[in-house]
């Protein structure tokens, strides 16, 4: 038969082609949750989770951050803010990822992109609290904590992926990436 495909695979191997859509969505949601635990509460998570990359979690966090900042923006700027946040998350992540790869990072391109996206979680939480709390100095403190938390989570991922003498060159743009979004949250763009 010309149309037959024979695979010598283990019968216990999970095939997403044969599983129901709901089961696939639940499996992916659990994987996103495990990766968020690695970033949000590091002692409870396994750092190797971020090496199994996906882009669903970063997309969700990007949409969450863009939505919160859009709600905070004035009515005539809402669409522009949403678009700008969305574009800056993906282009900024691309620039940081390319920088890491050019400096000799040992991890794959999409693993870096995935980790950068998941490390937006503290900034999203900070944006949510800043949306609820109206006091500037409390928001400033929350933003500093969210930025440090995001950088710490990213540093844990990037540590030992490049030579020790180049580690600062990889982490510095990551810090700038998160400073940009933290600033947007603080000023309520």
Automatic annotation (TrEMBL):
One GO cellular component, as annotated: trans-Golgi network
Transmembrane segments: 55-73, 79-98, 110-129, 135-155, 167-186
Ranges for domain Yip1: 52-184
Places the protein is found: Golgi apparatus membrane; Membrane
A family per Pfam: Yip1
InterPro entries reported for this sequence: Yip1/4-like, Yip1_dom
Membrane topology type: Multi-pass membrane protein
Domain of life: Eukaryota
GO BP annotation list: endoplasmic reticulum to Golgi vesicle-mediated transport
Keywords annotated in UniProt: Membrane, Transmembrane, Transmembrane helix
Protein family membership: Belongs to the YIP1 family.
Official protein name in the record: Protein YIPF
Source organism of this protein record: Leishmania shawi
């Amino acid at each position: 038969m010309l149309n037959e495909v024979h695979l010598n695979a283990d019968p216990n191997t999970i095939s997403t082609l044969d599983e129901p859509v709901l089961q696939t969505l639940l499996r992916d949601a659990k994987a996103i949750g495990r990766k968020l635990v690695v970033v949000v509460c590091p002692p409870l998570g396994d750092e190797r989770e971020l090496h199994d990359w996906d882009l669903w979690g970063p997309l969700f966090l990007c949409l969450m951050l863009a939505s919160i900042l859009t709600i905070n923006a004035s009515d005539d700027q809402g669409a522009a803010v949403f678009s700008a946040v969305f574009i800056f998350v993906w282009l900024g992540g691309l620039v940081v990822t390319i920088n890491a790869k050019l400096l000799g990072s040992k991890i794959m391109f999409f693993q870096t992109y995935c980790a950068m996206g998941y490390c937006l979680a503290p900034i999203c939480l900070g944006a949510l609290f800043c949306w609820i709390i109206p006091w500037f100095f409390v928001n400033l403190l929350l933003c500093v904590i969210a930025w440090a938390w995001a950088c710490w989570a990213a540093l844990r991922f990037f540590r030992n992926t490049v030579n020790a003498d180049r580690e600062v060159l990889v982490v510095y743009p990551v810090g700038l990436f998160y400073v940009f979004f933290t600033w947007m949250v603080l000023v309520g763009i």
